[in-house]
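Progress report, Aim 2. The chain analyzed during this reporting quarter is listed below.
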Amino acid sequence: MRPRQDRIFHYITAAITMVASIAYFSMASNLGFTPIEVEYRRSNPVVSGVYREIFYVRYIDWMITTPLLLMDLLLTAGMPWPTLIWVVLVDWVMIVTGLVGALVVSSYKWGFFAFGNAALAYIVYMLAFEARKHANHLGSDVGRVFLMCGSLTAFLWILYPVAWGLCEGGNVISPDSEAAFYGVLDVLAKPVFGALLLFGHKNIEPSRLGLRIRDYGDDEAHHGSSKGHIGEKGHAKDRGNGLTGATGADEGLVTGNGAGPTVGHGQSVV
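Predicted structure tokens for the chain:
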């Protein structure tokens, strides 16, 4: 098992799964939705009617989990923190505009849909180009993990606007089909993604990615090591003094009257 300071990707992935599980519990309990008047009234009996259920709890889930997914990817690529924060803000724009568009009755919803797609296009660009370059620079193994997980994320996220257009936007498919569509995407984008990411990180040290996090035990070990070094130096000094003091009273071998080395009280050595 990895030490605590090396579990950052495990904690992020666990948080993603936990939040998504709570959101799906709410939706399975038929909670967390509001009826919204549809813009397009269909003759198909599965989508006929004036109102449609909009599950806002799904967007709350995405507001929390999609930044964590991006953190998993961008930290893997070793991206700097300012870039990561900026991409997360763009991601929030994408989610909020999607929610507002779903709650708007008029055709203005498609304007919010366009803003959300622009934000998504920027995120996909960052994953496909900037972050991929950073990951490859850190090593071929890091580049492979990022390519695998980043490609999966980019592909799945592009399908979310398609689902939105068929469900909240266009009222084309039924709420049951909507739940299945989003459900498959979420399973692939979260637990499957997380399993692939953690498997890929099995032999990658977080310190290589600039993620060396100190634990409280590290400080104790550091101070203990320093004390050990000081003690060793002290013993070495004592041993050195013992070697230079040949008789215990005099220091070392001295040369007396040029006749040769003498020891102690001037006695000649022959």
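The CA atoms of residues 138 and 208 lie 7 Å apart. The first helix runs from residue 8 to 28. These observations will guide the mutagenesis work planned for the next reporting period.
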